[in-house]
Amino acid sequence: MVNRKIVGLEVLISLVKDLKQQGKKIVYAHGAFDLLHTGHIYHLEEAKKLGDILIVTITADRVIQKGPGRPRFNQEERAGFVAALESVDFVAVSDTADCVKIINLLKPDIYAKGEDVKHKAVDPQSGLHQEVQALKIYGGEIKFLKSLPIHSTELLNEFFSIYPAHVKDFLEEFRKRYSFEMISEALEQIKKLKVLVIGDAIIDVYQYVSVMSKSPKSNHITTRGLNEEEFAGGVMACANHLAGFCEKIDLVTCLGSQNSKEEFIRANLSKNIQPQFFYRRDASTTLKKRFVESAYLTKMFETYDFNDTDLPPEIEKELCQYLESKINEYDMVLVADYGHGFLAEGIINLLCEKAKFLALNVQTNSANYGFNLVTKYPKADYICIDEAEIRLAVHERAARLDNMIEKISQKMKTARISITCGHHGCMTFSQTEGFSQIPVLSTKVMDTVGAGDAFFSVSSPWTVLGLPMELVGFIGNVAGAIKVSTLCNKSAVEAEQFKEFVSNLLTGR
Q1: Are 249 and 398 in the same domain?
Q2: What CATH number is associated with residue 235?
Q3: Structure pTM?
Q4: How far apart are the C-alpha atoms of 118 and 111, rounded to whole Å?
Q5: Is the pLDDT of residue 129 over 60?
Q6: What is the distance between the alpha carbons of residues 351 and 357, in angstroms, rounded to a whole number?
Q7: Domain span holding position 293
């Protein structure tokens, strides 16, 4: 009997159409329903009283953005929980983050929501606001029902914790010093920052292959080519991450005239990013192709198509003139230096001298190992690099991380530093607060490519506001945790997704 209630979306559309023709009043409710509890049951019973038929949709696993380890129960299990309730008539799985699509298809008479989200209905940026607008088109109505003070996340955090003891201990202490309300207020201030993002443009390509066998005539593996995907990486990925938090971003980078990929890049930049491209005739836009075994997303090898020689003098001069005319407009200049020839010495000196606040990430990769060091910049206000990069910069193979951070701080006159340490989390430093160690917050890792970019981009505005570096490190680790759950630079960290993650960690809601 329960299984008959669970139907596909197309079947549900047909059922609702027939029921409406019979004069039935349709009530619709939606949620993740991850760990069904008394609050859910009460809400759905109250919703059923509003009409004749109660339709419920469950958020699909792949679009749930409620933080680490969620959903705890898969969509089939969650649909079964809800279908077991007497008040529910039909259940389906929704593959979108909001319910606009479902509302447009089903046209329910009543859309039932908890009163605890009523404030979102007037926020133009929220999904609920868009849902209310969809209801108005055909005369549907939203009803806000009294909610019981019970939340799945609180129960899951208490009884199904996904974190080891040291992370739980950290979060318990962290909650005593920082609140979700404080972070929400800071996010409102960050929206207004005027930001320039400058650095190397990179197109990331994943060439998916299946492994056949070792070649019988030589010592190499043969593969079957499948399909490939392109992603806007490098400085474009950094700009896209920031664009989810700041209302307006200006982007400066250099493309190759021979194969610029400009159309693709423009199509894959957030709408609130205004790009300024410079072009070098002796190059194509940097393209990094990774050959990826499709079953487990194992990277086998990669190729670079680029010209990493110094920027031609005439382009460097043109770029410096452009920066001279614009740089005073920005509250923060974010530099993503991948060491591929774009950020020449004259540009570096201008940025260090003229930027009001310089946030700096200088990366080591296969093409520049040992040559692209953060110390090529005379100074910065905020530095974010990884542990290997700081060891190269201070020429210390085995020194303590805190000692190396102090050396860099003194050498580069930098008051605020974050060092990412992979699965060990990060260490932050400020001259007034000292050191903080923040554990890693990710629980599911699909792909680590771009995690450092996400940490750097999302954490940087918080340093402009002068917020504690322990909080900056936490913010960066949240961004990294969100990023590693996605493939390459397929999607950027979004503010709502970020807030949902933080809310779950700090409030259990």
Answers
A1: yes
A2: 3.40.1190.20
A3: 0.77
A4: 12
A5: yes
A6: 9
A7: 183-506
